[in-house]
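Data card: per-record layout.
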Amino acid sequence: MLVSNKVLLNTRLDQNKVTLSEWLDRWLINYKKKGLRPTVYPSYEREIRPHVKPYIGNITLRALQTDDLQSLFNTLLDSGVPEHFK
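The structure for this 86-residue chain is written out next.
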């Protein structure tokens, strides 16, 4: 579930504490929502929730490494991820 807009807009980002999952919620609301068609925005959330958050969502932004992302991509490709992720 996404955090409320008000909380995300009024919260200073601490990279030592904020997880990728929390940042993705912020990113969706603050950076993507206004620029996407209303029918597209929910699809972003539906893709992130099962495909990203379970694998690397608990990693803090400070600790996130390129190897974490590559491992996620490899896992998704090995599990038969849909074409639009490739």
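Known properties of this structure: Residues 5 and 54 are 23 Å apart (CA to CA). The chain has a mean pLDDT of 83.

See the next section for split statistics.
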